[in-house]
Design brief:
The protein has 15 helices and 14 strands. The strands form three sheets. The chain has a six-stranded mixed sheet, sandwiched between helices. The protein has a four-stranded parallel sheet with strand order 8-7-9-10, sandwiched between helices. The chain has 405 residues and is α/β, with parallel strands linked by helices. It has two domains: 168 residues, 3-Layer(aba) Sandwich (Rossmann fold); 231 residues, 3-Layer(aba) Sandwich (Rossmann fold), CATH 3.40.50. Helix 11 crosses helix 13. Strand 11, helix 11 and strand 12 form a beta-alpha-beta unit.
Length: 405
């Protein structure tokens, strides 16, 4: 469980005013001194992500946030960052002090949480200092509360059990990458080019996770470089069900694979696994509608050293210009956020999102749709560019129909 990728863990965000005991609650829940605790207000200034295992829940990420009542110019920036944490939060915890009587700040964030349909649990802390009736608080804030003492651990087990109960209805680890299309003993060939962009001595996360997903569903993996694919097909021609490739290799291998063998890419698989494949498919219909000097946002969920022929920085802009025959303006974003104001963009092209959780990927898609901006996944775009998008979707016939319609 300790090696479970962060993006595949339940994300629990803890929100409350300064000095309500958010960090103390984390330490009590984990039974470890993980979070810095101080009587000084505003000890936590930025969201802090802590990967851990909590029984009976399993692997989680707990997000410790700055106080929602932080003040001043810097305080306002911290509060904004706290609210942005909701974009990746699977379960929200609202923490209040047992001596608190004014809930203006809590009402504001609870309203936002409910608008985003995030399950929320209320916690009244410091009951070792003052006993309170939670009925009045529940009536005013309109959510259920648990009474705990982070100091004495009273009520902590009941609180953890409630989180576990809520987590059963959240799909953070319920989806599969390709396992629903794999039967026992199906042979799946995975094409992993070892070129200048490949990390030395290891595979990247989508490759590792897809290999594991095939194994979990009793399929047979054959892992090869693109240079060995032709020989592999000659040896196992009648046994191969599906070829999964790095999207950048589509152009090299598309003509090698017989038509009766399914073909797709890791990025397309992750478009379905982390986001909404149908929305990315719709996005390609807007490519040829782009006009001269339209703004295009190319967004990646992680930061990495860009190498020669980088897919986001060089290849996608090159291909877009070739497809449209127009000069376009390109901007890039990477890491935990995308631009707050998306209104100036005509299209967004987004990576597979392997380093963020499904909640955050869906939030990014929703933000684009609210602004009426088409969004396309890297793999979908590259398959379209090579003229093989219908074929790359054959393994998902229900999605291919949407493309055809």
């Amino acid at each position: 469980m300790n090696t479970t990728p962060r993006a595949n863990r339940l994300h629990i965000g803890i929100f409350g005013k300064r000095n309500t005991g958010k960090s103390s609650l984390i330490n009590a829940v984990t039974n470890q001194d993980i979070a810095l605790v101080s009587k000084t207000k505003g000890t936590t200034t930025d969201p802090v992500y802590k990967s851990m295992e909590i029984l009976p829940i399993g692997p989680v990420v707990i997000i410790d946030t700055a106080g929602i009542d932080d003040s001043g110019e810097l305080g306002e920036l911290r509060v904004n960052k706290t609210f942005k944490v909701l974009e990746k939060t699977d379960i929200a915890i609202i923490l209040i002090d047992s001596e608190e009587e004014d809930f203006e700040y809590e009402k504001k964030i609870i309203k936002t949480i409910k608008e985003k349909n995030i399950p929320v649990i209320g916690v009244i802390n410091k009951i070792d200092l003052k006993r309170v009736s939670k009925n009045k608080i529940e009536k005013e804030l309109e959510i259920n509360f648990f009474k705990v003492s982070a100091k004495t651990k009273e009520g902590i087990e009941n609180f953890k059990n409630k989180i576990a109960e809520y987590s059963k209805d959240i799909e953070y680890d319920k989806k599969v990458i390709i396992g629903d299309k794999v039967n026992k003993d199906d042979v799946i060939v995975q094409v992993i080019p070892i070129d200048e962009s490949a990390p030395k001595g290891r595979l990247i996360l989508p490759q590792v996770q897809t290999i594991r997903d095939v194994l979990d569903h009793n399929g047979i993996n054959i892992v090869v470089q693109d240079t060995e694919l032709k020989k592999t097909i000659e040896l196992f021609r009648d046994k191969i069900k599906l070829v999964i490739t790095d999207s950048q290799a589509f152009g090299k291998i598309k003509d090698i694979i017989p038509e009766d063998i399914y073909l797709t890419s890791y990025s397309i698989l992750f478009a379905r696994y982390k986001g909404e494949l149908s929305e990315f498919i719709k996005g390609v219909n807007h490519i040829k509608k782009l006009k001269i000097n339209d703004n295009v946002l190319i967004s990646e969920a992680c930061t990495h050293h860009r190498q020669k022929n980088d897919i986001g920085k060089q290849l996608i802009p090159k291909f877009l210009k070739e497809i449209t025959g127009k000069e376009l303006n390109f901007e890039w974003s990477s890491g935990n956020t995308i631009p707050e104001d998306l209104s100036k963009y005509s299209v967004i092209i987004h990576c597979g999102g392997c380093m963020i959780n499904r909640k955050e990927m869906l939030s990014r898609i929703n933000k684009a749709l609210i602004n009426n901006i088409p969004i396309i996944n890297y793999g979908i775009f590259l398959a379209y560019n090579h003229g093989i998008l219908p074929r790359a979707l054959e393994i998902f016939p229900e999605e291919k129909k949407k493309l055809e319609s």
